Request: fold
Amino acid sequence: MAESLRVVVRYTNGQTLKGTTGDFRPANTRFHLIPADGSRVVEVRVEQLKAVFFVRDFAGSPERTKLRGFLAAPAETSQGKKVAVLFRDGELVCGYTLTFSPDRAGFFMFPADPASNNLRIYAVTAAAAEVKAGPAAEQLAQRILDESKRDSR
Reply:
């Protein structure tokens, strides 16, 4: 039997589900989620998703200040090269990937912030407005962070 992993599933329509899965595979178009609230098993269709967040726990750390961008991180680590994903809903996620290819349905990434509640993220390519790897990832992250600073004034 497959290991049961804690996930937070985020749909492109804004809906969020928390639970566990034992059958998520990047090549599959569907997987099953056992909701954390004890409700019935849900069949999740990947094409409807923004991303699947594999998490340490469901509560996270709401009081913790989330680090955005790359914060002088190395260009490449054992977890791959830098990647920045700007989702269509405006969320920016920065991290490292070994598997990004624009012609794939999605890819795994590890968060740039090692203290994040996210262990890894499966980003659905179709839900992204922009995906940049390598030096272009740093530029995308900086552009979005600069825009959000300007907008908050």
